[in-house]
Design a protein that fits this description.
The complex is a heterodimer. Chain A is α/β, with parallel strands linked by helices. Chain A has helices at 45-52, 75-85, 101-111, 116-129, 145-157, 175-190, 202-205, 223-262, and strands at residues 3-14, 17-29, 34-38, 60-65, 68-69, 86-89, 163-167, 194-199, 210-215, 218-220. Chain A has 8 helices and 10 strands. Classes of the chains: A alpha/beta, B alpha+beta.
């Protein structure tokens, strides 16, 4: 098992109001798996992605990555985890606009302290892997969307991470480019890379070997089960809220009565 | 690091106008400081040259009583225990490091009318009894006639050499060679005219300068020191003049010579001592005066640097905000805090250092313009230029720290979310 999430909860606090985003997430991914996490916007999939990517801390729960608990690690240790174990691919590519494709791919290597000569060689290999060797010196503005995403994938793969995390990797691409990216993912997965992809597009999700559905912070392999669990939880919460409001009301009434008695 | 510097230049280049305007405060501050320092240094160098003379490098070692120079005349006696400088002592002095040559001399200021030619008196001038080495030591050359010879000393020839000022005073419009002058009622034949070998005119900018640099312009008459007992006293203590290799050796060699001379005498009055006339010290005192006023100007220029530094901080904050997404991405792909800190700090330092370098260049140009327009001497100071660039680097670090710290501590999720 390369990663496992156990009873992960995540709440956001907005003006004293606690908004639960992830509710009891249990997810384990085996090495070499190709997983898609599907869900509508606002379902908490990006938050889940951030937690898996060690960018965010859960409110509670346990997260084991590659046999080690990553919760409670300090910022610098988390940076190392992100550097060596996880490759990120974003919807909007996130390339440095002023740097060439090659320099963009090199970026993680400079954080890993790789020598200059070796850096270039490895970056060229990574670009070759995504079929963009000829465009190594092109700036992002000179590349198409699909090409940009392939540069981003080369960058994500440069340190040979075990996990590739992709957040809507085809979201900003046309269908043809999207298919190209999916073929590349398939190839990488066949080479042994574990891929976790987040998407709202069922067609894209079909490329994965396993699909999880996340609805209102509840995850399940069965879409219906996720929905029903989420709805049940929703009702429970609503009842709790009503109960609290009732309590508050009665508290206030009691106080009023008390103050009346005092006067 | 090199990578960071390369990226910084790229960033600065992509916002040329903004970067230049940001640097402007630093440029103006550094340029002002360099111009002021160059002017101070120029003035100081001029003071030093005026006092010491260019290339002459001579130091006089005079006998002092207490704080004053001891001058012997008819009414003052020679202090007990003070003897004349022996040939042995001279040998020791010539062996001091960096001493090129040394000569003994005796001098009386002509207050009471020692020297006459017909009705012309050398009042205000001086009579000097000198060694055979004297003119050579002071770089004086015989312009007309001849110098003293060993024979003049051996035979006690009553011969005299005049300098140009005394020629003008005693022999206006006449050729003095072969004429007889009277020194303290003794007749002396003029055999030559001497002139300072190094033509040096002190730069006079004010009345004060005139009194400082033109103390000895009344004219001097020179006679062989062996003749001194004929006209004056036989036991008068001599003064010493030495020539050293370079200006910087003057103080140390002067002190060494004074020590040797003091060791050779045993005065009963222990305030009687040989002292080197330390012109470098005198120069320093005058220089300090001009420096203290100009230091105020440097402070004012420093304010410009402060304002410039705040400008840099401001623009760095803008840069951090602009590049939030880039910072988020870098953190996401594994950049540690100190890498991000380093990147932005480098950018701030590159920005201010560039400003510093441009400032130094503009400062040098400004100094040159000042020297042309205001006719003031300037001297560019190498250490000041290096110091200014180093200081602008420090400004980059100080004012870049806050924005860089802000960048390093950005939350990567927040940073990536921003489009």
């Amino acid at each position: 098992m390369i990663l496992s999430l156990e009873h992960i909860y995540k709440d956001y606090v907005q003006d004293k109001l606690v908004v639960p985003v992830l509710k009891d997430i249990n997810l384990s991914v085996e090495e070499g798996e190709y997983v898609a996490i599907m869900g509508p916007s606002g379902s908490g999939k990006t938050t889940l992605m951030n937690i898996i990517g060690c960018l965010d801390h859960p409110t509670s729960g346990e997260y084991i990555l590659d046999g080690k608990s990553v919760l409670g690690l300090r910022d610098n240790a988390l940076s190392d985890v992100r550097l060596n174990s996880i490759g990120f691919v974003f919807q909007t590519f996130q390339l440095m606009p002023r740097e060439s494709a090659l320099e963009n791919v090199c970026l993680p290597l400079s954080y890993a302290g790789v020598k200059k000569s070796e850096k270039k060689e490895r970056a060229m290999k990574a670009l070759e892997r995504v079929g963009l060797k000829e465009r190594a010196l092109f700036k992002p503005t000179q590349l198409s969307g699909g090409q940009k995403q392939r540069v981003a994938i080369a960058r994500a793969m440069i340190n040979n991470p075990k996990i590739l995390l992709a957040d809507e990797p085809t979201g900003a691409l046309d269908q043809k480019s999207g298919e190209q990216i999916m073929r590349l993912f398939k190839k990488l997965n066949e080479e042994g890379v574990t891929i976790i992809m987040i998407t709202h597009d069922p067609k894209i999700a079909q490329n994965a070997k396993k699909i999880y559905y996340i609805i209102d912070g509840v995850i399940s392999e069965d879409e219906e089960k996720a929905r029903s669990t989420a709805e049940a939880l929703e009702k429970e919460e609503a009842m709790e809220d009503d109960f609290l409001i009732e309590n508050e009301k009665s508290d206030n009434e009691k106080q009023e009565v008390a103050s009346d008695e005092n006067s | 690091m090199l990578e960071n510097i390369r990226m910084s230049f790229k960033g600065i280049w992509s916002h040329k106008m903004r970067s230049f305007l940001t640097m402007l405060g630093i440029i103006i501050g550094i340029a002002a400081i360099i111009a002021i320092v160059s002017t101070i240094k120029g003035t100081n160098e001029q003071i030093k040259q005026n006092l010491i003379g260019s290339g002459n490098n001579t130091v006089k070692i005079l006998l002092n009583q207490g704080d004053y120079q001891l001058e012997i005349d008819e009414y003052t006696s020679v202090p007990d225990g003070v003897t004349q400088i022996s040939d042995e002592t001279m040998k020791k002095i010539r062996k001091i490091d960096h001493v090129v040559s040394a000569a003994r001399y005796l001098r009386r200021t002509d207050y009471s009318g020692y020297v006459f030619y017909l009705n012309n008196s050398l009042s205000g001038g001086s009579v000097n009894g000198v060694d055979l080495d004297y003119f050579e030591t002071l770089d004086y050359v015989i312009r007309k006639g001849r110098g003293f010879s060993q024979k003049d000393y051996d035979d006690y020839n009553k011969v005299a050499i005049l300098d140009e000022d005394s020629v003008e005073t005693l022999f206006p419009g006449e050729d003095p060679i072969g004429k007889t002058i009277e020194i303290n009622k003794e007749p002396f034949v003029v055999i030559g005219i001497v002139t300072s070998g190094t033509t040096f005119e002190p730069t006079i900018n004010s009345e004060e300068d005139y009194y400082t640099y033109y103390q000895e312009s009344a004219g001097s008459v020179y006679i062989p020191s062996s003749d001194w007992p004929i006209v004056f006293r036989f036991d008068e203590p001599e003064s010493l003049v030495i020539q050293v290799e370079s200006t910087d050796d003057m103080t140390s060699a002067g002190k060494a010579a004074a020590d040797i001379l003091n060791a050779a005498i045993s005065p009963t009055d222990d305030t009687v001592l040989y002292k080197a006339e330390d012109l470098l010290e005198q120069a320093k005192e005058i220089q300090q005066l001009s420096e203290s006023t100009n230091n105020m100007l440097i402070w004012i220029a420093g304010i410009s640097l402060l304002v410039g530094g705040i400008g840099v901080m401001n623009i760095m904050l803008v840069t951090v905000t602009e590049r939030t997404q880039e910072i988020g991405l870098k953190k996401a792909i594994g950049a540690k805090k100190n890498k991000i800190l380093g990147q932005f700090l480098t950018e701030a330092v590159v920005l201010t250092s560039l400003g510093g370098i441009i400032g130094v260049i503009s400062g040098i140009v400004l100094a040159e313009i000042i020297s042309r327009v205001a006719d003031m001497p300037v001297a560019i100071s190498g250490p000041a230029a290096v110091g200014a660039v180093a200081f602008s680097m420090v400004i980059g670090i100080v004012f870049g720290m806050m924005p860089s710290y802000k960048a390093a501590n950005l939350d990567p999720i927040e940073a990536l979310r921003r489009e």
